[in-house]
Amino acid sequence: MPDDLLNSFKTGPDDKGRFGQFGGRFVSETLMPLILELEAQYEFAKTDDSFWAEMDFLWKHYVGRPSPMYFAERLTDRLGGAKVYFKRDELNHTGAHKINNVLGQIILARRMGKTRIIAETGAGQHGVATATVCAKFGLKCVVYMGATDVERQAPNVFRMRLLGAEVIPVTSGRGTLKDAMNDALRDWVTNVRDTFYCIGTVAGPHPYPAMVRDFQSIIGKEAREQMLEAEGRLPDTIIAAIGGGSNAMGLFYPFLDDTDVAIIGVEAGGKGVNAKMEHCASLSGGRPGVLHGNRTYLLQDEDGQILEGHSISAGLDYPGIGPEHAWLHDIGRAQYVSITDTEALAAFQLSCETEGIIPALEPSHALAHVAKIAPDMPRDHIICMNMCGRGDKDIFTVAKHLGFDMKV
Ligand SMILES: *Cc1c(COP(=O)(O)O)cnc(C)c1O
């Protein structure tokens, strides 16, 4: 190991794909050759300048990067303490950070000669991002989505169909995200030759958690440079919302070795982190187990059955959390907290009123935690929060909770 990495938090995963006791590769033997091929191809692409040149070109001209680093001045005044910046990833094409990663995986898929892309989706955001990039490259796109979610997320189902994707409702199990992930893995084994499985968060078997993190790290890489430009120094605290943990890992990773920078991940606390599991806080309220090909903290009952959890935000209801977060939590490099539905709703409105930014409900969780801690911090304390998605998709949910009758 090179000297500069000896005391680094950036060395993971090891060659077995593990971050400490988390991560790994828990897949059937039939999947192993596929995973190994993917790993080899990604290892090659990672150090290939032409791969990153293609990424940079499309990040700039298709996604709209770099996203701005914005000083939220009226919000800062309202909170009366720390100086709050938003990393504006909600301004990306398709309205969130997911496209950063999808672009990377699909460029890789093209290099591997794959012509058919499969994905699983819960709320539909990752499905839409995948269908978008597939349309752009003329690739066949198949999205597995729990039957329950197909009903709950009709607008995203329609978007995917407009973009030319085939949406397959999954009726096995309880018909939600976990079942869609299983079916996508099954599809992959059956269609080895032409198919690439595009995973939407820092989960799945190795090398996915590291690969997705690397693609999303553009967020933290830009944030670091922009902060140095705006303030001449790094932020004191960085903070992001966590579903599976990809936007958070993308912001956190480039800062992991800046040990003066405090790192906070915000999980969905739903109705409170209680015994009834009416939340999606895998770290705060879950236990280690194996799901989706890796070992991590999961929402599960006493028999190890995966639980659904609850959050006002559909994008945060992944039943697990990326293995690298589980590790950062256990070694204490990052802190993980939870925010309830009610607190997130209040933060959603706060951003609308003070900044003219309608945030997605996911980053509203991060903002709610900012609103909790900023007032007690000195004025020269700098917080950088990832505004990872915009709220257009959430206005119906918010209207319902605020008792606004939206007759359309
Ligand atoms: C999907 C989504 C999330 C949750 O996914 P992560 O992998 O935790 O980033 C958060 N915010 C938005 C806007 C999303 O679309």
From TrEMBL:
Q: Which SUPFAM superfamilies match?
A: Tryptophan synthase beta subunit-like PLP-dependent enzymes
> GO CC terms for this protein?
cytoplasm
**Domain Tryptophan synthase beta chain-like PALP, chain residue ranges per copy:** 64-389
Matching entries from Pfam families are given as: PALP
Which EC numbers does the record give? Answer: 4.2.1.20
- Has the keyword Transmembrane helix been applied to this entry? no
Q: Which InterPro entries match?
A: Trp_synth_b_CS, Trp_synth_beta, Trp_synth_beta/beta-like, TrpB-like_PALP, TrpB-like_PALP_sf
Q: Which cofactor does it need?
A: pyridoxal 5'-phosphate
Which reaction is catalysed here? (1S,2R)-1-C-(indol-3-yl)glycerol 3-phosphate + L-serine = D-glyceraldehyde 3-phosphate + L-tryptophan + H2O
For molecular function, the Gene Ontology terms on record are: tryptophan synthase activity
Q: What pathway does the annotation place this protein in?
A: Amino-acid biosynthesis; L-tryptophan biosynthesis; L-tryptophan from chorismate: step 5/5
> Quick check: keyword DNA-binding in the entry?
no
Q: Which domain of life is it from?
A: Bacteria
**Alphabetical UniProt keywords:** Amino-acid biosynthesis, Aromatic amino acid biosynthesis, Lyase, Pyridoxal phosphate, Tryptophan biosynthesis
Give all N6-(pyridoxal phosphate)lysine modified positions: 98
Physiological role:
The beta subunit is responsible for the synthesis of L-tryptophan from indole and L-serine.
UniProt xrefs under HAMAP family:
Trp_synth_beta
Q: Which family does it belong to?
A: Belongs to the TrpB family.
Quaternary state and interactors: Tetramer of two alpha and two beta chains.
Q: What is this protein called?
A: Tryptophan synthase beta chain
Provide the organism lineage as a comma list.
Bacteria, Pseudomonadati, Pseudomonadota, Alphaproteobacteria, Rhodobacterales
Q: Which gene encodes it?
A: trpB
